[in-house]
Each structure stands twice: as C-alpha cells, then as structure tokens.
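hiii so my PI (J.) wants the whole complex modelled not just the main chain, which honestly fair. so below is everything: two entries, each one labled with what it is. i double checked the lines twice but i was tired so who knows lol
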Amino acid sequence: MADDPKREQSKAPSDRDEGGYGPGADLLARIDAAIDADDRPALNAALEPMHAADIADLIERLDPARRRRFLAMYSDEIDGEILSEIDESIRDEVLELLPRDVVDEAVREMDSDDVVDLVEDMDERERARILSALDASDRAAVRQSLAYPEYSAGRLMQSEVVTAPDHWSVAQTIDFIRAEDWLPEQFYHVILVDPRRHPTGYVTLGRLLASRRDATLRDLAEDSFRTVSAFAEEGDVAYVFNQYHLISAPVVDRDDRLVGVITIDDAMAVLDEEHEEDILRLAGVGDESNISDSVTETLRQRLPWLMVNLVTAILASLVIAIYETTIQEVVALAVLMPIVASMGGNAGTQTLTVAVRALATRSLSGRRNVWRVVRREAAVGLLNGLAFAVVMGVVAWIWFDGVSLAVVIGIAMIVNMAIAALAGILIPLALERAGADPALASGTFVTTVTDVVGFFAFLGLASSVLT
Amino acid sequence: MADDPKREQSKAPSDRDEGGYGPGADLLARIDAAIDADDRPALNAALEPMHAADIADLIERLDPARRRRFLAMYSDEIDGEILSEIDESIRDEVLELLPRDVVDEAVREMDSDDVVDLVEDMDERERARILSALDASDRAAVRQSLAYPEYSAGRLMQSEVVTAPDHWSVAQTIDFIRAEDWLPEQFYHVILVDPRRHPTGYVTLGRLLASRRDATLRDLAEDSFRTVSAFAEEGDVAYVFNQYHLISAPVVDRDDRLVGVITIDDAMAVLDEEHEEDILRLAGVGDESNISDSVTETLRQRLPWLMVNLVTAILASLVIAIYETTIQEVVALAVLMPIVASMGGNAGTQTLTVAVRALATRSLSGRRNVWRVVRREAAVGLLNGLAFAVVMGVVAWIWFDGVSLAVVIGIAMIVNMAIAALAGILIPLALERAGADPALASGTFVTTVTDVVGFFAFLGLASSVLT
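here's the output for the full assembly
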C-alpha cells in the first residue's frame, strides 16, 4: 500500500520522542490541545506528519471518551493504511464510529491479507457488508483466504502474487512486469510456476536486475526454495521465516498449487504476537491483554487466573493445616516455611521459562537432546538445592539455635529444589506432547507443585524429627 | 550469501519433523548413527539436504563430547553460512576446533555484518587473526562497523549498499546494476544519494521494474522514507522495522552520510533476542541463558538470582518472626498467611508483565496515557482485592469458624492486592525512567513487596484484633 505523500516523516526534532521514534511529547500535547479545543484544522495539521502506524497507536491510547471525540473530528481522514494498523481490541469500536463511505474507501485500498485480518472475527452479516465494498475478484480472494483455518498461513497470505514461467528470459519478465497494472504494493521475488501453477522456485528482483537480458529465469532461481502450506500454523510460518532468513514465501494449497504469498513483515508481526502470548500466559494474564483495555475488560481477563491461583494456594494451606500442632510446638517452622516454598517457586519458574522459550524456538526437540536438557535441569536443581541447603542450614542454626531444625530445612530445600526443576521442565514438555501450549504451564501450576512439596517436605520432616 | 546448491531442501517427508520444519527424527537418528560409527560419507550424505541454519542448530544441541567428534568429522564442510548461524554460546568452542583455512574461507564468504557479529566479542589479537583473511576493503568495512557502540545500528548494518543519484533514469539504473559485480547477496531497494552521500530517498526494486525506462528515480521514490542513525540502539531499530513495516533502512553517521543498510531479517533476529531477554529477565534467569549451556554455566547464571530471592525471602520471614507469639496463639494464621502472600504475588506479576510488555512495545508513553494505565491498574487491584476479600473471608469463616479472622484476612487481601498492583506498574516505570531495563523488576522484587506487605497486613492486623 502506498504511503500517503502528505504523511511524510517529519524531521523537526520536537515532533519526535527522545529515542527519535514515534511522535514526541510536544506533538502529543498539540494533538491533545486540538482535541480539547475541538479544533479540526489544528488536529489535521498535527497529524499530517505522522505515519499511519503512529496515528493508529494514538487512537488506541486515548481513553474511550476522548477516542469518540477524536474520531468525530478526524473520521474523514481515516484511510486503509490507518485502519489496517488499528489494534483488534478497539477496531469494532472505531468501525462503528466511521461513516460508511470512509470504511468502504479504506477497505478498497487495503491488501487482501489486511482485509482478511479486518473481517475474520466478524459475524457473516457484518463481514458481507464490509466485503461489499470490494469488486468481485478482490472479494473472491478474501473469501478464499477465509476458507482456511484461523491462525493459518492461508489467513496470513496476500493473494496478489507476481509469477512467471521458468523458461522466460529476463527481458521478457521485465517487460511483463512493466506492462502489468495490478502489481502488489510490495514484492521481492518473481515466483516461478509450471503450467499447473505449482511453484518451482523463485528469482529475487535483485538477481533479475543484475542478470543479462537473455538469461533464463530457471538459471537465476535461488538454490534454497521453500513453500508454506496454506494450512500451516502462523507460528510455524514465523519460525520458518526467522530460521531461514526468508523475505517472502509462496503459499500452496493441498495440491501444491500456488494460492498466495506471505511477506516477512507479516511474519515478524506474528513472531511478535507469539512472544506476547508466551510472556502473558506465563504470567497468568489473558493472552489478549492490551494496554487500551478498560478496567472491566482487564478484570475479566485476570480474575479467572487469580481464582485458579486461589484454589492452588488453598491446596498448599491444607498441607500446612495437617501440621498445625507441630507449628504450635515449634513456631520457628511458620517463620521458615515460606522460604522453602519461595526458593522452590523461583527455581521452578527459572526452569519453566527456559523450557517454554526453548520449545517456542524449536530448540527442545529430538529425544537425545530433550534427555540431555532434562538431565541438566535435574542436576542443576539438585546442586542448587545442596547449595541453599547449606546456606539456609547455617542461617536456621544461627537464628533459632537448633541443629535438627537446620538439618530439616536443609533436606527440605534439596527435595523441593530438585522437584521444582523436574516440574519446571516436565510440565511444559508434557503439555507440548499433549498438543497444548506449554506456556499454559504458567507460574501458577509450577508454584503449586513447589508450595505443596515444600510445605510437605519441611513440615512433615519437622513433625517426625522435632516433636 | 548464496545457498550451497548441494544443500537443497529435502522433500522426503521422513527427513522433516512433524510440523514439516527442521530436520525430522529419522534424519537426526541417521546423523547420530553416523557420528557413533565415525562414518564420514554417511554423515555428509545425511547433512547434504539440510539448511545451514539447521546444521548450526544441530551442532548447538550436541553434548560437548559429541560436538567435538562431529566437528572432527565435518569441519571441512563448515562454510560461512553455517558459521554465521552458529550461536554465540558455542562459537568460540567451534572456532577452536576448525582448521585455520576453513575459518579463513568461511569468513571471506560472509557479509560484513556477519563478520562483525563473529568478531565483536573477541580480543584484539584473535580479531586481527580472523580479519586477516579478508581483503583490505572488506576489513575496513568491518573495522568501521566495530567503531560503533555494541548493540548499535552500526554493528548491525551491512556496508554493501546499492546507491544511485536521484536524477538517473530507470534504464541507466538497471544498466548500472547489471554491470556491477560486487552486489550484495540480498537487496530490496536502490538508495538515492546526493553528491555528498546523504540519502534522500529510496526506490523499491519492484517499482524500478514496473516503471518506464525513461522514468527518473526521484519520481519513483517511496513517500515514506526513514533513515536510522548508526548510533541508534538495536532494540529501537527492531521497533522501527516492526512499527513501520520496513524491509530495509539506510544507516547514516553523525553527518547524515550513508554508511550502510540494515535489512529486516536482521531486525527480526534482534526483535527475537529482545523478547528472549525480557522473558528470561522477568523469570530471574541470566539473559544469556541457552539450551546448549552446561550444568556449570547454568548454575553460574541462576544461582545469583536465587541468592537475591533468598535474601528477600528471609526479609519476609523476619516479618513473620515479629508475630511469632500471635501465631502460637492462633495457629490458623500460619495456615492462611501463605494465601494472602500468594494472591498478592500473582496479582503483582500480572500487572508487572503487562507493564514490561507495554514498555517494550512503546505503548506506555505520554503522561496522560501512563496515568490512565496506572489508574486502571490501581482500580483493578482494588477490585480484585475486594472480590477475593469476600471469597477468602467466607472460606476462612467456614474453615476456622471465626468472624474476626474472616474480617482480618479480607482486609489484608484488599491491602495486599492494591499494593501489588501499584508495585507491578510503578517499579517497572521507575526503572524505565532511571534508564534501566524494566524487565529487571523481575518477579523477585515484586513478590518481595507483596510477601512483606501481605504478612505485615495480615499478621499485624491479627495481632491487634485477635489476641
């Protein structure tokens, strides 16, 4: 999609933030003032130098009331580029506030993959209304993409592709491209296809330009050529781009026929989202959490996880309750028991995080390799346990002047940190094997194990040794 | 860098893993068998279809003894592509095992940015030895990059750039490119420069190919044009690529003169690393943790963080110790106190994670926006506290049959969850303001706050109400 020439990058330093990226504080203040004063010309002037992505971010970060006011003033200027940058979390809200003809015009400007992204979560009635702005062939392309599963390569691809038969010469290909009037806004390769539209290779535009006019495309094709199935998961697609440094990849259907192309900027966005999901899931936050969410929305996402945590915390308390009388006799146990649990929880979270990351980057695969890592984590857990058994043994000894207490906490420390390491690696591995997202083994589950084991080991041992 | 034609992607399904990406279990088994049998031809045959990135991963995942054996068998086949894919964590080890001429040949094949990445952590003697393989001009380019700070755009860029004056025609430019014999392996734009080598815009190769031969480059330049300072931090560079969907960006020195270009695949790799750092730091794992690390290396990274956690856990225990006599009188307090601490810890971690992510994606900026989010988190914390105060109040009432105990735990829950929310948002914001990485506000620090506050609120209140 062509950038709007009016929206040329501003070079005035006061218009950029400290890092030099995104709108600066001065510019944001001017925009705020213009919204407050309902001053449309001032608002347009302030937004003129901004990139569509920054305008979309701005809209996202306004509180709902100001967003409404902003859109009332600026809706005529919203184009396809801004609309495709607006985050899902507020898109419905924005779409409702825009005049019908603005939406139609914006949708017509968008690449097919952006239209798919816009309409995929809508119900059929709404979707049909949006797609009615497109001409029949564009609409067919969008419908074709929507036929593939959610989060698949088929949803991510754009159907605008530049192809050529592999027997064409450089001159022929350049003439063909020059004569075309429907070229995609961005393309980096010519995809070679056979008469049945099976992709057989690709030629980079750089290679095409650098080669003699009579060279044949077949001879210029890159040695390494990878297609992506339209049914592949988008996370796998992002992995393939990152692993093999791809810039674009042809997408094929079940019969290996070319149906579209994915470019690296979309793969990069997916990689970013997948990371976001991992980090939010590990922390037990709904994976669609967003900075623009309202208080109610935020509560809706976080309460269920806290509820799960409450149940697991009560579970751990039940273990403590078993040893009530022991604690009453030796109250030092109540003082020290959170240390055992906390150390186990932290050690478990360390292992868990490394395991989840390794699974996400596909570096935890192959039986031999997995066992090496499991053995390593077990060894690390045991050694950590030994180290902190000594440290806490000494601390407990000095603090409460009791050798048996020191021995008890030392043993509990070793047991809990070894179990923490095993839970941290085995729970995510088991989830992955079962086809679930390993990041769902969030802190909550691993710390439940370490709390329960920690309290059991420490208090159980204490009750038989100290009383 | 050209892919080795021999290393063509294998299409045999048994050679791929279940997802169809990377080497499959069969292939890995064949490689293992070949290493065990010291069967060089079998090893070469098994590795032939593999991409350099997959071979590098394979080397990374072998345990040290097998890695040594593997390299003894395969070292002659290691080329620039494989070498530049090998992870930092094992690179020194691999370099030591390779014959001098293999390294020299590999280095000569690499792009300047990959050579910079290879030598930047070496001492000057080692660095000079590696760079001696290069001819004078390539060496100068690498030295120029190394003059920029670590983790800067200057280190990330490649110096091979295709430029043209903006008054050239399409025909002239294509003829120029066709005549050049030193073109970079991958390029997607022609950068327009003035006579003093200031970049003034760029033309995509697609646009160049699609335009009439007599069109002038100036008229084909993209509307949106962004340069990156060679001194910019690589994290900011990755952000700019992701935010503005750039494919490549010209890098300029302090005088705004073109010194190189960064392409999106490198930006994608940086984005991936930054995420990795965030997630590992949040979990209190050394941010260079790697799946190939040995037990000793892993311990070295994790022990310091666990030590920090031990100190903070002891701090929380000291709070409990103040109320020893209260606990002895009402032992139910020992049973319930971990629940208060755990709920606060979880709520704090949720807020913290969202805040760290928002800071990483630059969506937590602008005073008005920051205050909106702080207010939201405070409100969410208070409401969560209220909700769980009721739930836990009822649980405590039923469990221990005491109304005062129920009231005490309810109030402690509200206080701790509100404080947890504030700590979760304010600690990372303060770190960011102070110029530190907000992800360093790892779980450890936030849970210290929630443990201490939780125990204080619960036990302190109990000691004055219940005894």
